[in-house]
Amino acid sequence: MYTLLSGLYRHWTRKEEYYVIIIGLDNAGKTTLLERIKSIFTGVQGLPPEKIAPTIGLNIGKISLDKVHVNFWDLGGQLELHSIWEKYYAEAHAVIFVVDSTDVARLETVKSTFDRVVTSDALEGLPILMLANKQDVPGCLRVEEIKEVFNPIAVQLGARDSKVLPCVALTGSGVRDAVDWLFVRIQRNRIHRPPVFRE
Ligand SMILES: Nc1nc2c(ncn2[C@@H]2O[C@H](COP(=O)(O)OP(=O)(O)OP(=O)(O)O)[C@@H](O)[C@H]2O)c(=O)[nH]1
Ligand SMILES: [Mg+2]
């Protein structure tokens, strides 16, 4: 009886955890986004933008939504760091791919990088959210223009959930919508990539 009750108690009180990787080229605004997510969802002020340096290793953030923990892994975007991303794919439940909407010169590099990400076997079926960041900068690529560029690649996305959303990581505009969109999709995809359960 005791075993049954303690088993039920453990079942009820265990916490579900999901992992989201934040990737994209260097300077896209990934760490700024992570700090903004922390500020919005934990109420604890994240690092101010002027204190954020280029990421070499990994930055971690954790938020709770409806008693579910969502962990964010923000990885460095410099080209020589891209091979490290793959080490996190197997444990990820979703991908946020951040694009610098002002960086027209590197669109081809963004395309080939995104192409490698969406065709990676380890990420197959996972929700992918592309964030068109820095929408506050006059003259930047608008979401519709970015969608046009990435539509040919999106064909390879198959039946998985994917979306392009605008955001301004610097001010937080669009960040809540982005996380809300992702949260619904990772839960919807839980049969294919179940959460981690923590006691
Ligand atoms: N105007 C504007 N600038 C932004 C925005 N988000 C980030 N930035 C700036 O872009 C620069 C790079 O931001 P980071 O967050 O360090 O970029 P990152 O993608 O983490 O870069 P790596 O760690 O090198 O991969 C910083 O100067 C930020 O202040 C935004 O929404 N608007
Ligand atoms: Mg960074």
3D architecture notes:
The chain is α/β, with parallel strands linked by helices and 199 residues long. The chain has a single domain (15-192), classed as 3-Layer(aba) Sandwich (Rossmann fold), CATH 3.40.50.300. The protein has helices spanning 2-13, 30-42, 82-89, 107-118, 143-154, 175-188; strands spanning 15-23, 58-65, 68-75, 94-100, 128-133, 162-166, 196-198. Strands 1, 2, 3, 4, 5, 6 and 7 form a seven-stranded mixed β-sheet that branches. Helix 4 (107-118) packs across helix 5 (143-154). The longest helix has 14 residues, at 175-188. The model has no long low-confidence stretch (mean pLDDT 93). Bound molecules: guanosine-5'-triphosphate and magnesium ion (MG). The site of magnesium ion (MG) has 5 residues, from helix 2. Magnesium ion is lined by residues 30-31, 54-55, 74. One of its GO terms (cellular component) is Golgi apparatus. GTP binds at residues 24-31, 77, 133-136. Mg(2+) binds at residues 31, 55.
Topology:
Layout (H helix, E strand, L loop, with lengths): L1 H12 L1 E9 L6 H13 L15 E8 L2 E8 L6 H8 L4 E7 L6 H12 L9 E6 L9 H12 L7 E5 L8 H14 L7 E3 L1
Parallel strand pairs: 1-3, 1-4, 4-5, 5-6
Antiparallel strand pairs: 1-7, 2-3
Helix pairs in contact: 4-5
The protein binds guanosine-5'-triphosphate (GTP) and magnesium ion.
Magnesium ion binds next to α2.
